[in-house]
Amino acid sequence: MVFVIYYGLIIFILEVRSIMSQGTGREDEALERGLKLRHVNMIAIGGAIGTGLFVGTGGSLSEGGAGGILLGYCLISVMIFFSMTSLGEMSTYMPVSGAFETYSTRFVSPAFGFAMGLNYWFNWAVTIACELEAATLVLRFWFPHANSLIWSVAFLLFLFLLNWFSVGSFGEAEFWFAGIKVVTIVVFLVVGVLMIAGVMGGNSPGFSNWNVGKGAFPNGVGGMIKVFLIAGFSFQGTELIGIMAGEAKNPEEAVPKAVKAIFFRILLFYIGSIIVIAFLLPYTDPSLLKTGVENISVSPFTLVFQRAGIAIAAAIMNAVILTSVLSAGNSAIYAGSRVLYAMATERKLPEAFAKTNKRGVPYVSLIFTTVFGLLSFFGSFVGEGTLYLWMVNTIGISGFITWFGIGLDHYRFRQAFKLQGKDESALKYKAKWFPVGPWICMLMCAFVVLFQWYANGVSDFQSFMATYIGLILFIVLWVGWRLKHHDKLVPLAEMDLTPDQGNIKERAK
Question: Which CATH architecture has domain 2-423+434-487?
Answer without folding.
Answer: Up-down Bundle (1.20)
